[in-house]
Write a structure and sequence with these properties.
242 residues; nine-stranded mixed beta sheet; 7 helices; globular
């Protein structure tokens, strides 16, 4: 387990992981355009875990300049926004002020082995090695899909008796030293025709209104009159001091 930059030959294999992402998440326009390039253009901010020659986990992060006019460290358009900023700043050769995680993905066969904690620790160390004082993360709470009608602002306040977040993935971040800062209400946006949403989900999308989609953190808004549906996913900004 370690930085991808030290093992560049693994870059092409980092996306071969059998993941558990809902199928519709492949259709975020920003992610579709840029996510596959992260391991090649930002390998020094990515980490991988292997079992022999097999990549069994990946952790992706990117740096950006949060001090430009009109920007902030934790934008409301979370994941989509920081991914776009990172590539724009790299193209303009701007200095960067902060790094944000994009994802930690574990192969299905390796879930439940504590890899998420180790990958987060490896990402924290990798980002710190580049002089950053914080690792930010627009976290996608992994049990929120079971409560799609609950506002994210309410969901993040749910805790266990020990005071830790009720959500397992938020709990991993907090136990690792992260601090929940705020909700990113429009972190990722997925839009498409109703026929596209039917193909992505297997659901009819034949009535105007909110549609609960398996794996979605909030309902998808369907508009039959205008033949489109839009899913705006909220995430949770967590800060890790390094």
């Amino acid at each position: 387990m370690g930085p991808l930059a030290a093992r560049p030959a693994l870059a092409a294999r980092a996306y071969e992981i059998a993941d558990t992402w809902p199928p519709f998440t492949e259709h975020d326009l920003v992610g579709s355009a840029l996510l596959g390039r992260v391991v090649h253009e930002f390998p020094e901010y990515c980490v991988v875990a292997t079992d022999g020659d097999r990549v069994v986990a990946r952790g992706l992060s990117v740096p950006y300049d949060a001090e430009l006019d009109g920007r902030e460290e934790t934008p409301d358009q979370g994941w989509d926004r920081v991914l776009g900023w990172a590539f724009r700043d790299r193209a303009a050769d701007r200095p960067t002020t902060v790094a944000s995680a994009l994802e930690i993905t574990i192969d299905q066969d390796y879930l439940g082995r504590g890899l998420s904690y180790r990958m987060l620790d490896a990402m924290r160390r990798t980002v710190a090695a580049h002089g950053h004082r914080s690792l930010l993360a627009p976290v996608r709470p992994n049990a929120k899909h079971r409560h799609p009608r609950v506002p994210m602002t309410e969901y993040v306040r749910r805790t266990r008796e020990d005071g830790l977040p009720a959500d397992p993935w938020l709990r991993v971040h907090v136990k690792a030293g992260g601090t929940i800062e705020k909700v990113a209400p429009a972190s990722m946006t997925f839009s498409g025709s109703l026929e596209q949403w039917r193909s992505w989900t297997g659901l009819p999308f034949d009535r105007t209104g909110d549609v609960e989609v398996p794996g979605a953190l909030v309902p998808v808004r369907c508009d039959t009159e205008h033949d489109h549906a839009v899913y705006v996913e909220p995430n949770v900004w967590v800060r890790h001091a390094l």
